[in-house]
Amino acid sequence: MEHLKQILQDYVGQVPWFFGSIIVALIGGAFTFWKAIQDLPRVRLLVSRLNQKSIPKAGSEKYSVFVANLDHDAQGEYKRRILKNLRKFKGFEVRSLDRSFTLEVGNLEASEAQGHDKMRGYLQEAGGSIVIWGSIDKIEKRYVFSLYLTTAHPEHNQSRDYPPLSGELMLLHKDVWNDLLNVLTLLVLTRSAEFSAKQGQYVADLLPDFIAKVRRLLGPHSDSNSQSSTWNTEGKVRSQFALADALLTLGQQSGESQPLTEAIDLYREVLNEWTREKVPLDWATTQNNLGTALRSLGERESGTERLKDAVKAYEAALEERTQEKVPLDWATTQNNLGNALRSLGERESGTERLEAAVKAYEAALKERTQEKVPLAWAATQYNLGIALVRLGERESGTERLESAVNAYEAALKERTQEKVPLSWAMTQNNLGSALRRLGERESGTERLEQAEKMYLGALKLFETARAEYYIENTKANLEDVRRLIDERRSQDNS
């Protein structure tokens, strides 16, 4: 209102005296009857827009929930109470959004869709996660409200008329909390799926923000008397599983061990809820991922305890992930079991574990075919190549090393730089190592020069991606092969 007065006063000061007097008289009449005038639909809309606050920006450390103005809440009393209740939950940020949308009752379905679109626009401008909007009525001493939850993903939107709720404090109905937390869980799972879809790409730089948000969402976040302190168990477990997956990927790509340790603890916590009796396939999936976290950490430690635990986890997963029931999942776990056996075999003098690893990879390839799952097929070819190199290093001949080169070259048919740049570079690096081993057993420098070329290609991509963990390893390989080339050339010239 004050803003509108100032606009009119500034305007009057700019017109001639006679017309100014007329305008002043009209303004005076308008202010006298302002209460009646401001209730006119178009005037009310104009005043509302003039007084609207700018859209606030969401913070980056938590998921953010915005609460828009509610229909039939002219003074904003009920909105303030909703904000107060939501703010008892410390796992997400709560912000007020000074915008509203009025539904057309005669065309409700189309109007709801329009409302979601409008709110999604505000949400995108704010950079938020969810916006709550709708209407609320007080009938005698009971509150009746229809709320809508809009997200950036239309498939996650929620709409519901909630049962009447009594009480002057207007605690949110438990179904509102459940719906809100369910939508937040869906946002977590959607983002997790986006990272999974980037398999073979370097995402370690994108994961910390996601991990921090999910940690805060799941952590101790509400006062003990708040209705928000109770999570939907399934939603919480699925979010824990998604967090563990993100930590696993971060640990693998960054070279840091702490994320892997945390992932192991989370997978074990998930297994307390996802038991074999209740959800056998979810239990098996968690055992599989636990095995991968244990193996990744075990490969960085001097002992073999973690690696042996990884083998046990994979073997447990295979009790439910059978070839008959879930052939591709069975093949995935066979591939992973091969990885754990290979890592154990690398630390033993014999070849029994390495031979078992090769058999596991060959079993996986029965289902992981190039036609059905090209990238998974390529991943197993890559892993097979590693096992064959390790066996070749312990033999005097070159047959295993030649087979390893063939496996890596097969993998590169699908692991292209365009599709999966990080996986392409890792395969280039390992192909270089196989060629270097062959070159060490042959005269001349042809194989060694091929290895140098592979390392250079891999290093260029790792440096572009700023993948420090891989850069250091590849530089060391490049230095070794160049030293060998120089020694061989010196011998040839002498």
- Number of DSSP helices? 19
**Unreliable runs, pLDDT <50, ≥5 residues?**
none
How helical, in percent, are the residues? 55-70%
Q: What does the main sheet amount to?
A: 6 strands, mixed
Radius of gyration from the alpha-carbon trace, in angstroms:
32 Å
| Spatial shape | elongated
By oligomeric state, this entry counts as: single chain
Question: How widely separated are the two ends?
Answer: 95 Å
Percentage of residues in DSSP E strands: 5-15%
DSSP strand tally: 6
Mean of pLDDT: 87
Strand-and-helix sequence, N→C?
Answer: HHHHEHEHEEEEHHHHHHHHHHHHH
Decide which structural class fits the backbone. Answer: alpha/beta
What is the fold's blueprint, element by element?
Layout: H1 2-12, H2 17-32, H3 34-37, H4 41-51, E1 63-68, H5 77-86, E2 92-97, H6 108-126, E3 130-139, E4 142-151, E5 158-161, E6 165-166, H7 174-197, H8 207-218, H9 233-254, H10 258-273, H11 280-298, H12 305-320, H13 327-345, H14 352-367, H15 374-393, H16 399-411, H17 421-440, H18 446-465, H19 468-493
